[in-house]
Amino acid sequence: MSTIVVQAFITLDGVVQAGGGPEEDPENGFEYGGWQNWYDAPEIGEIVAEWEGRTEALLLGRKTYEIFAGSWGVWDESAEGLQGELTRRYNSIPKYVASRTLSEVNWKNTRLLGPDVPAAVEKLRAEPGGEIRVWGSTQLIRTLAEHDLVDEYRLCVYPLVLGAGKKLFSDGFALTKHTLVESRALPSGVLVNTYRPSRTG
Q1: pLDDT tens-digit profile of 127-181?
Q2: Domain boundaries, the chain
Q3: Would you tell me which of 62, 125, 131, 173 could form a disulfide with 99, CB atoms 3.0–4.6 Å apart?
């Protein structure tokens, strides 16, 4: 059985939009793109590299897929450091995309999940494998949570309130109790927390 792991960089008020840069996702006039870079947290690169070393597949919504395909999908695999490492990994592993509008995907090793996303993800999750990674994709994550298909959240929580932007846990998100299984405080004030849904039965 595989595990569905959501990873996110998130502010205190729950915003996950465009942490990496201004052009990443300016939707709805978002003005704070690149807010992650306001903090000196070099450990994050090492943490992400360790996390992504366990990634056996990517599970993405349409917008995040387009961002990833336009970056990791075209960047030089021979680049030094984390960029080259992740580019090689992301190009080689399977990628699954949830979309109601796309009819084709061009990034290699990518396929569309089809109209019944929860059923398709449940089938993927039941197959032998490792971690299926979800980045971004707030609408997809909400759908997965509604069907109890998220096994773990790994959140890098930045000590920042933006007051605007897309949130990971928006109003109406599925009620779920979670257990904190790991927490690490970085010198920058960023907290790296891992949560698992508290399932019963």
Answers
A1: 988 999 999 999 999 999 999 999 999 999 999 999 999 999 999 999 999 999 9
A2: 3-11+49-154
A3: 62
Tokens of 167: 């949130």
By CB neighbour count within 10 A (0-12 exposed, 13-18 middle, 19+ buried), where does 186 fall? middle
Locate 81 and state its tokens: 């450091």
pTM, two decimal places: 0.93
3-11+49-154 has which fold? Dihydrofolate Reductase, subunit A (3.40.430)
- Kindly report the number of other CB atoms within 10 A of residue 102's CB atom: 12
Instruction: Go through 5-24 and write b for each residue having 16 or more CB atoms within 10 A of its CB, e for each that does not.
Output: bbbbbbbeebbbbbbbeeeb
Angstrom distance (rounded) from CA 36 to CA 19: 5
